[in-house]
Amino acid sequence: MSEQQLFFLAPIGSILALLFAFIQAKKVLGFSEGNEIMQKISASVRKGANAYLKRQYTGVAMFFAVMFVILGIMAFAGLLTPFVPFAFITGGFFSGLSGFIGMKIATSSNARTAQASSESLNRGLRVAFSSGTVMGFTVIGLGLLDLSIWFFLLKYVFYADLVGDPSEQIRRISSAMLTFGMGASSMALFARVGGGIFTKAADVGADLVGKVEAGIPEDDPRNPAVIADNVGDNVGDVAGMGADLYESYVGSIVATMALAVSAGYGFGGAVVPMLMAAVGTVASIIGTFFVRCGEKADQKTLLGALRKGTYISSAIIVVAAYPLIRIALPEHQGVYFAVLSGLIAGVLIGFFTEYYTSDHYNPTKNLAAASLTGPATIIIGGISLGMLSTLLPVIIVGASVLTSFFVSGGGTNFSFGLYGVGISAVGMLSTLGITLATDAYGPVADNAGGIAEMSHLPHEVRERTDALDSLGNTTAATGKGFAIGSAALTALALIVAYIDEINIHDPTFVMNLEIKNPPVLIGMFVGVMLPFLFSSMTMSAVGRAAQNIVKEVRRQFKEIKGLMEGTAEADYATCVDICTRGAQKEMILPALTGIISPIIVGLVLGVNGVVGMLAGATASGFVLAVMMANSGGAWDNAKKHIEGGKFGGKGSEPHKAAVVGDTVGDPFKDTSGPSINILIKLLSMVSIVFAAFILKFSLF
Amino acid sequence: MSEQQLFFLAPIGSILALLFAFIQAKKVLGFSEGNEIMQKISASVRKGANAYLKRQYTGVAMFFAVMFVILGIMAFAGLLTPFVPFAFITGGFFSGLSGFIGMKIATSSNARTAQASSESLNRGLRVAFSSGTVMGFTVIGLGLLDLSIWFFLLKYVFYADLVGDPSEQIRRISSAMLTFGMGASSMALFARVGGGIFTKAADVGADLVGKVEAGIPEDDPRNPAVIADNVGDNVGDVAGMGADLYESYVGSIVATMALAVSAGYGFGGAVVPMLMAAVGTVASIIGTFFVRCGEKADQKTLLGALRKGTYISSAIIVVAAYPLIRIALPEHQGVYFAVLSGLIAGVLIGFFTEYYTSDHYNPTKNLAAASLTGPATIIIGGISLGMLSTLLPVIIVGASVLTSFFVSGGGTNFSFGLYGVGISAVGMLSTLGITLATDAYGPVADNAGGIAEMSHLPHEVRERTDALDSLGNTTAATGKGFAIGSAALTALALIVAYIDEINIHDPTFVMNLEIKNPPVLIGMFVGVMLPFLFSSMTMSAVGRAAQNIVKEVRRQFKEIKGLMEGTAEADYATCVDICTRGAQKEMILPALTGIISPIIVGLVLGVNGVVGMLAGATASGFVLAVMMANSGGAWDNAKKHIEGGKFGGKGSEPHKAAVVGDTVGDPFKDTSGPSINILIKLLSMVSIVFAAFILKFSLF
Question: Could you give the number of structural domains in chain A?
């Protein structure tokens, strides 16, 4: 098979993924939605989520229109290739579409999962997991589709005249494709931040008034914010997560493509990332067939079932990547080990995330014990745990970068090594189809539990959905580790791609990237600070949005007669609407910070400063995101540990202290932490798109 | 005046500072210690602090003995100049001595301040401030003494034979002197971490059982941990702070000296930092005479009095630095503006620290309002506030570095610019005598308030000491901003000095400090993570030590009959002893982390990796320390704001929530945050001392 023919594996992979997602969707939709109440609740959640996404996409569309004009002007002025404004739009469109489809299927599966769980645990698992699969394969399918279309157009239409100069042709192609991650990043940031604010404002609002003030249980239909809370799971954990990983996936592929070109690998090296993705698609599809369980499954068996699928997919990639790299890069077979190092790093980060956040291990058990001396000590304990948990992921990423660099020949040719680093990110993300499926399954199970509760299904149904949900917490934690790990590697690849871009734009420009060069150093300081600033903004946004929900829920309890007695129905839609408006308003400032910072830093400190900023933000964003995700996850599970009967159980003083911890952890793990992943990639993407602009107008 | 003669200003400055400290000490000790009860309480605190320091110095002495042997072996193997082991010892000795004298005078001034306050507010201020002055001038006096002695010995005894080759002579001198900051850093780290653990364990322990469980007021003599709490103020905020700033002071001077040599400035440039310090001594002495107030002073007037002293000192330096630099560096007068930029940055960081932590401004007022919705929202609010507050200090430090670099000629000669960055750190620290005095005054006023309470002095005395103490909180916050700002600039200067050292050790070694070089990048990741790891360790250490105090206080309440009725006396000494043992044990691991990390990173990633680590740790340490100090300060003052009658006042639900915030803030602002300052300097110092070792044995 020639290199040129190899490329067509990418669109084939894309079609396979989309087809598989379609089949899974049909399968899920074939299940019963249960009784009338269940259907009604599910419809409310669906309606709320639709309303949210509609408003979000309207707002984001305006942003994209403005950016399209700005990029158009820049392209007209010769600062960008003319494809960029269009690529920007398609990136945003497909990223948004991934989230939208994921959300659609998730909101159609919640009642079906509850209903299936009333039949058997395995059936419940199958429905919830299949729903996750739709999401996972939609993301990779659309990602590969977008990439394939552009690659095809650039190679066979726009740059077809360069066919006689293949190295120049591939250079132009990769440079053009690199810039279109910005559309995906922008969309992802809006989705993650907006969704994160929505979900936590609803959650905190529902808890503060419903559970604490009115004393009604979680997911009680009398709570006016209960539907908003369920909508939040879908718009935050599903649509946001989908857009995020779409972006990592596409970003790591285009960055590595650009690195292949600067390493002089030509066509073969440039298409390897897409081929890895195509192979990963097939491996992931195969893996999904191994996810099943018996009826008497406990959490460990369930987790084992999901793990089995992921590990089998990884094993297939380990085997299949070897011949692929042998054909595409016959003289650089060391690259194969870079793929392995990325895969292994992903698995290890996932494992340690679980170690620090699951109450099967000591860290979270000890954290639960800290609740005995009150809320202050559990807060200090959780922050301390989160900070400690950053040590191993940093070492793992560091070791992975170093390994990928050297096995790919970085010792003799620097560019070879950097390509290896990019390929390790691609390797880590190659199993995305199934990893994302195990992750996106969580919110569906969570929603199913809520529906079981609200529609008064028999006790054992709730027990089964609880088993599924509790597992979902673990896979969500692992998924977060995976998302941040891949984001860090992708961001590193993008930084190097940025440096290459500068050289392409202005080959005479001599960069001084020495860390002692003041612009680099100051840029790094600014970069290290940015994730803190960004987290501050997103956390206070949740606080403000939650305040409005608190007021509204209090109002409804006071004004709607018979609500507490169950004779009147709460006005769910208003709560959803308040969350939607709050999230839309509050997401603007953090998102603009991500877009404007690289431009300001570039104008003041020059391109060297930008590189410093990107490196600093990637490192500090990685550490801070791991810390926030793990602190939040551990608080959540410490609370669940106590609710399981330890230290006095539900309602005891330690439990109250643990609830404080969990409430602090909510914006940590579901708003600020995951948004940082996207921030660090968006910063690089914006820098790349504005590279020529900065070169021209910077003070330095 | 010739350059050679100029040097003698340094020992003269040292003698002036020590003389002034001595006179102030005599003055303070001339005041009455008050009645018998006051004397007895003060004696208990003194005894406890002595016992703590004795045990600490014994432990640290063992560490120094071991390090002396290790450094001796390295010197014998030719990896260090033979002076280093001795310089290491003197640095540690003088740093420890600074803390010891500061603590001695502080524990002798607490009862005297209480007694003086019973006469008039101005008298109280004079005693407390004079006590702070003793500390401030001891630190700069001993610092300059240590520097002068070594400079004299190296120039006129050890390297006297090089008199014919002045540039080689000064190069050798500066290289030897650079390494002796490590002794000071190590001592400072033990003092800060140990003291920080002691003070917060005692504070948290006293509060949790005394205030919360037994319901007795703060500083009540029935609380067995009350003396330990007062001792803590002295060993943490006084002895720890003194050792910390001693280290910044000496570190910035020796680093800048080394940078002068690599910039080719020769003798003149090398002594400028010491001369700046000498001029600063005189300026600080003059400034102290302007600190006084009338009897009807409110907090604003009091703050104005302290500010006046600091601003006058700064103004004197602005005037005096100009002729000094004109004489010493006639061809590089732009350096003068680097001094200014450092001074201005110090003032600005101090101002913004106050803005974010004082309840006269909106951030802390809004934080207090967050207590209305419970502990979780005030915690989220405080963390968010701390994160937001990092933006301006980063911009200020960045602007200061950039300004100093370019006004000193960095645009044409890189080394000139780096020297400017070093000199800006020296400029910021030149007013240390008086800045430290205004800072060290706080714990004395705090102790005085405790003594007034415990010895049942009239109500208006406590009101006056409260006015002094409340002001002390503001100056402590400003002092923390100053400490971390100067630490960051000093650390940056040390990083550059490290790079120079490598070139001196092995002129053939080509460094690749490009940020895209994997060892640099990974080193930076590790560096960014280290302050998180370190903070986790110190926070959990406080937790463990506090648990032991809680148990002991509970035991005493249970077992000592008549304690609650006031007929029997608590066993204060045991609580002090438990804190002491806890702090000694718990400080070992974090301190070793600071010492071993650069060696491990060096061995694995090489010297390029070490530079990456140092840069990453400085940036992330700066941001994290600012965040922790400001979150903690704001929580503290939000609680005080509520206690002042807002949102329901003392005992209300919002107050309880604010107490949770304050308790979380305690280790943030008094243990972890301030220890990070020293960590980042110690990392650089250890790297410098082990430079040749790493060059020889590193994998890379």
Answer: 1
